[in-house]
Design a protein that fits this description.
This protein is an all-alpha fold and 391 residues long. The chain has three domains: 2-48, no CATH class; 60-227, Leucine-rich Repeat Variant (Alpha Horseshoe), CATH 1.25.10; 237-391, Leucine-rich Repeat Variant. The protein is built from 26 helices and no strands. The chain has helices spanning 2-8, 11-16, 22-36, 39-48, 70-78, 83-96, 100-108, 112-125, 133-144, 148-155, 158-168, 174-184, 188-197, 200-211, 219-227, 229-234, 237-244, 252-262, 266-274, 277-286, 294-303, 308-314, 320-328, 334-347, 352-364, 371-385. The N and C termini lie far apart (118 Å).
Length: 391
């Protein structure tokens, strides 16, 4: 048998060199093969090779955690006493919650909000034990806060809300905590619950008046201001906003947006009339260093909507119509165009003659594809063409 096998080896050489013995050919080729492919050289190279990490599978992911029974396994591992198993389970859960089916199963079947709340509170109490798990828990809460059902469950858990607010007022994880609360207050029913059942709104106003620059996301307060502006005004939030807007803060644009919401109520209008807010907004509208003038135009629209005193002050600002028309020529911002044209329409009864004689061609040249902008522009041009002149 072995002789037959040797005869079939190196068949090509045997046909080319028929005078040589088959055993000699096989022996020579075997020696040359071992000299070229030295196994010891490959062993040395293999020792220097570093293992390549997968670009798809992340570190700290639970094994066999995906599939029909994956969520059951993850929920069980969350309660593990071993920190590395718990960390792997939380990393996997943050990925599973991105799937709508797994998200709903975790909410309705496993009561994931309660489980994560208990886990977060335990980790916050045990400050020296596996604090790197807290950002992963907050990441899961960020995903859950996008669901209305999960948001309602989270809002009714006062211990969780109080703990999140503590994170907002401190330096650790304040960005994610404020993002979670901002997602919750996007729903009006949750805002009503916070206003009537908790002190979150009042505590937030008091905190912002002292440490608003260190807050990760100022939009959290604007959801409250949009629905209940008078409550913030009663706590002195209007004076704080007016005082801070002239300074060039990194979140100056959000402060102006907050002022626009405060002007939606009669209390805000009364305080705005007694302040120099209209002159501050006029200077900001003329400032070319601002990235966008949308919030300034929004605040001007709300300020001139129901106050005759503010409209009378606008007569002193002779270049206000020209500034509004200039900002309305921005083509990539429909809201800014709409706010500028609406503000121009509201102040036009006082300076109609000037606008019709000096600014009519500039208003006609404003271009937009938005139906609301075109409608407001048409109403303004129709008003300017009318025979009634109030100036």
């Amino acid at each position: 048998m072995w002789n037959q096998k040797n005869k079939r080896r190196n068949r090509f050489l045997q046909m080319q060199l028929p005078s040589y013995n088959v055993d000699i050919l096989n022996e020579v080729t075997q020696i040359e093969f071992m000299n070229i492919f030295d196994v010891s050289k490959f062993d040395d190279c293999y020792k220097n090779i570093q293992p390549v990490k997968s670009k798809i599978r992340k570190d700290g992911i639970s094994n066999l955690s995906f599939g029909s029974w994956g969520l059951h396994k993850i929920i069980k591992e969350i309660s593990s006493d071993e920190s590395h198993i718990q960390m792997s389970a939380m990393n996997t859960l943050s990925q599973l919650l991105l799937d709508n089916l797994e998200l709903n199963r975790s909410i309705y079947q496993f009561d994931i909000v309660l489980r994560l709340q208990n886990l977060l509170l335990r980790r916050r109490i045990q400050k020296k034990k596996c604090q790197r798990l807290v950002p992963v828990i907050l990441r899961c809460f960020v995903i859950l806060s996008g669901s209305l059902q999960a948001s309602l469950q989270m809002a009714k858990r006062r211990n969780l809300i109080n703990e999140l607010f503590k994170m907002v007022t401190t330096e650790d994880n304040n960005l994610m905590a404020s993002c979670i609360l901002a997602n919750l207050v996007q729903h009006p029913q949750i805002v009503d619950y916070f206003i009537h059942e908790t002190s979150l709104y009042t505590d937030l106003c008091e905190y912002l008046k002292k440490n608003f620059i260190t807050l990760a996301d100022f939009n959290l307060c604007n959801h409250f201001l949009e629905i209940y502006p008078q409550l913030a005004i009663d706590r002195g939030f209007f004076e704080f906003i007016i005082h801070e807007i002239p300074y060039r803060h990194t979140n100056q644009d959000i402060l102006i947006k907050s002022l626009a919401f405060l002007l939606n109520c009669s209390e805000g209008q009364d305080k705005f009339e007694k302040s120099n807010g209209i002159y501050i907004l006029h200077e900001l509208l003329l400032d070319d260093q601002l990235e966008t003038h949308e919030t300034v135009a929004h605040a001007l629209q709300n300020a001139t909507a129901g106050s005759k005193i503010i409209l009378w002050k606008c007569r002193e600002l002779w270049n206000l119509p020209n500034a509004l028309i200039q900002r309305a020529h921005v083509k990539n911002n429909d809201f800014q165009q709409l706010y500028c044209l609406q503000t121009l329409r509201q102040i036009s009864p006082l300076v109609k003659k000037y606008i019709r004689s000096a600014c009519f061609p500039q208003i006609q040249s404003i271009q937009s594809n938005n139906e609301n902008v075109i409608r407001v522009k048409g109403e303004l041009l129709k008003w300017l063409k009318s025979d009634e002149i109030n100036n």
